[in-house]
Design a protein that fits this description.
mainly alpha, Four Helix Bundle (Hemerythrin (Met), subunit A), 2 domains, about 80% helix, about 0% strand
């Protein structure tokens, strides 16, 4: 009995690796920020659509991470053996079955939201699911298409916020547009550093990213500018605070605005250090391990701040 239990634990750990569980832990903001900004009050969040939407988000997120690892298997065998080794533990045919299950769960929830009348939410999720597939899967595999390679990632940062927003709202507001632009660019800025750290590996496998199209230096400069765009999120929240509490009486939210501002600046400053080094690829590898940290130190404070707006 003990060996089979140990084997099951190994498989579960391997699944968490190919699911990039460390990054998914930080992705709760994708699912909740749109909900919190759109709900307007805490009472509006007490509805079955909220847990269903979070489940929908994670079904697509797991599918996106797993399919990316599945089609990166040959590359990872050379450069990220812990990833390919995790697939070997699970077995590729088992991972294919898991992908089908994740896809069907996501599709079921999408249909459910469409039947509930949340058409924009359902369509946004469907685009996200399709985008996750074509980003990684052959023959399209957009991730190796040069200039267009970041587009599906931009969508995967955008669509969850839009989907959550339109559960409660019928149209976009100026403040939400400002927020979502800042949020998407900030996260893409962090992701570009992660892209640059695989410069040589991607080049040897014929994968062409922004780092190859524009060069490491220029891409990392864009990463810094994008990462600082998170301050637009703070500006948008400030506008909501002012419009909702003209005398700024929501002190907890105001304090979190300050904390969010400082943490976004700190993360952006660390991104800036990457392109100031001499060996840019090595700098990217050195700082790329901070991706989860950047995600968590910016997303969680924004999530807490937007929740406080509801109280």
């Amino acid at each position: 009995m003990a060996p089979s239990n140990n084997q099951l634990i190994r498989k579960m750990r391997a699944f968490l690796v190919v699911s990039r569980a460390n990054l998914l832990l930080a992705s709760i903001g994708h699912a909740t920020l749109g909900l919190f900004l759109g709900a307007l009050s805490f009472q509006n969040l007490i509805t079955v659509e909220v847990p269903l939407y979070i489940a929908l988000h994670y079904s697509i997120a797991f599918f996106a991470c797993n399919i990316n690892c599945y089609f990166d298997y040959e590359v990872d065998k050379k450069y990220k053996k812990y990833m390919s080794g995790s697939i070997d533990i699970i077995h590729k045919h088992t991972l294919r079955t898991i992908l089908v299950i994740e896809f069907l769960i996501a599709l079921f929830l999408i249909v459910l939201f469409l039947l509930l009348g949340h058409h924009i939410t359902g369509i946004a999720a469907l685009i996200g699911l399709f985008g996750a597939y074509i980003y990684s899967a052959e023959p399209i595999r957009i991730k190796k298409r040069g200039v267009g390679s970041p587009l599906p990632i931009l969508l995967l940062y955008t669509l969850p916020l839009l989907g959550g927003w339109f559960i409660f709202q019928d149209s976009l507001s100026v403040t939400f547009i400002i927020f979502i632009i800042g949020y998407v660019l900030m996260n893409e800025g962090f992701t570009l550093v992660n892209m640059c750290e695989d410069y040589s590996e991607d080049k040897s496998e014929g994968i062409r990213t922004w780092a190859h199209t524009f060069g490491l230096k220029n891409t990392l400069k864009v990463a810094f500018l994008f990462s600082m765009s998170g301050l637009l999120c703070v500006a948008a929240i400030g506008l909501v605070l002012y419009n909702k509490f003209h005398d700024i009486t929501n002190i907890p939210a105001l304090v979190m605005v300050g904390i969010s501002t400082l943490l976004i600046i700190k993360a952006g400053t660390e991104v800036r250090q990457v392109y100031l080094g001499e060996n840019l690829e090595q700098q990217s590898k050195l700082y790329g391990v901070r991706l989860q940290k950047w995600f968590m130190m910016t997303r969680y404070p924004l999530m807490i701040t937007t929740f406080l707006l509801l109280l």
